[in-house]
Write a structure and sequence with these properties.
Layout: H1 26-37, E1 41-45, H2 52-63, E2 68-73, H3 82-88, H4 99-112, E3 117-122, H5 132-143, E4 148-153, H6 155-165, E5 177-181, H7 187-197, H8 209-217, H9 221-237, H10 246-259, H11 262-271, H12 274-280, H13 296-304, H14 318-326
Parallel strand pairs: 1-4, 1-5, 2-3, 3-4
Helix pairs in contact: 1-2, 3-4, 8-10, 9-10, 12-13
């Protein structure tokens, strides 16, 4: 008989790097691929820990057979000029005009040869302090069909970048970009992920452990990874109660998410503007207050932060709302 793996298959840490099929994201990936194939510009948006980088890594894996993929995270370099940005992409030998000019000419040559290129920019918020010519350079690449471009960041990041680019009168940077927003995955995909990822020695029954996890933390993949990991570890090292008792899953939810991930929730809270924080103080029983009851400034900020959509619907985030309610007196 084949021995059971001692590894815990749930990975609650960084983004997935080698998986072209992150759970529940196939429709999003196919939409982005279709846009890239038309040399369109895409903004992949979502809140922190939504799985944006995992989706971007999956996109890179899916495209690399047919495209020359130039992929960079802007967090470390924080480029302010087109030359600096081109340099992060590993531009070819710099010509007389510098790295940006060299890359632009290389993309032009590739287009003439019918070669296909895509530029992937993670942590796009770091372009908010860039010089205006950088945005003109990016827009020219897109408008001339030299490469598909995918920008990745939060809704707030993207708003800041577009505002920075449009400091130049008459500029319309962002008008050509199609947003793709990541939300929670659907419940069926989340249930399938939990039951199929769980190891043979710690099976998650769809109507027991898997259902209890979904009821508690919703369907964001990060939360599923964290609580799935906690359940597997608990069953292997302490007790099998989480497989048969909802109460034990709830205890693990409180410890693994609300306690051990306190710093994550605190940093998310601190990133919010004051109007958004004021609105969220009304959370009760994991439920935010009615959107229509909020002040216009609060509504605008919640949409900008990605906590609500433009149809005035809250984006489900039970652990964050639960953490806010329990921390209200300290916030």
């Amino acid at each position: 008989m084949k021995p059971l793996s001692v590894e815990n298959p749930f990975l609650p840490g960084g983004p997935l790097r080698d998986d072209p099929n992150p759970p529940g994201r196939d429709a999003d990936l196919r939409k982005i691929q279709a846009l890239v194939e038309q040399c369109s510009l895409v903004a992949l948006l979502g809140p922190r820990r939504a799985g944006k980088t995992s989706v971007l890594n999956a996109l890179r894996l899916r495209l690399r057979q047919s495209y020359r993929v130039r992929h960079t995270s802007l967090e470390m370099r924080q480029p302010r000029t087109a030359d600096a940005l081109a340099d992060t992409l590993g531009s070819d030998q710099a010509g007389r005009g510098g790295p940006a000019d060299s890359l632009y000419k290389a993309l032009t040559r590739e287009k003439k040869k019918r070669a296909k290129t895509v530029l992937l920019f993670d942590e796009v918020g770091y372009l908010a302090n860039a010089d205006l010519p950088l945005f003109s350079w990016l827009r020219a690449i897109g408008q001339e069909g030299l490469a598909g471009i995918v920008y990745v960041g939060t809704s707030r990041d993207w708003i800041k970048v577009v505002e920075a680019a449009n400091r130049n009168p008459g500029s319309s940077f962002g008008n050509d970009v199609t947003p793709v927003t990541l939300g929670p995955i659907n419940r069926d995909d989340a249930r399938t992920f939990l039951t199929k990822t769980a190891p043979p020695d710690v099976p998650f029954e769809a109507e027991r452990t898997a259902a209890w996890i979904l009821d508690l933390c919703g369907t964001w993949p990060f939360y599923l990874q964290v609580l799935g990991f906690a359940v597997v570890h608990d069953v292997r090292t302490r007790t099998r109660r989480a497989l048969v008792e909802r109460e034990r899953v709830h205890e693990l939810y409180e410890q693994a998410l609300l306690v051990e991930r306190h710093a994550l929730f605190r940093s998310r809270w601190d990133e919010l503007t004051r109007p958004a924080q004021d609105a969220l103080r009304g959370v009760r029983g994991k439920q935010p207050p009615p959107f229509s009851a909020l002040a216009p400034a609060e509504q605008d900020e919640l949409i900008a932060c990605g906590l609500c959509d433009t149809l005035q619907r809250w984006i489900a985030d039970p652990p964050f709302f639960d953490w806010i309610e329990r921390q209200r007196d300290r916030l």
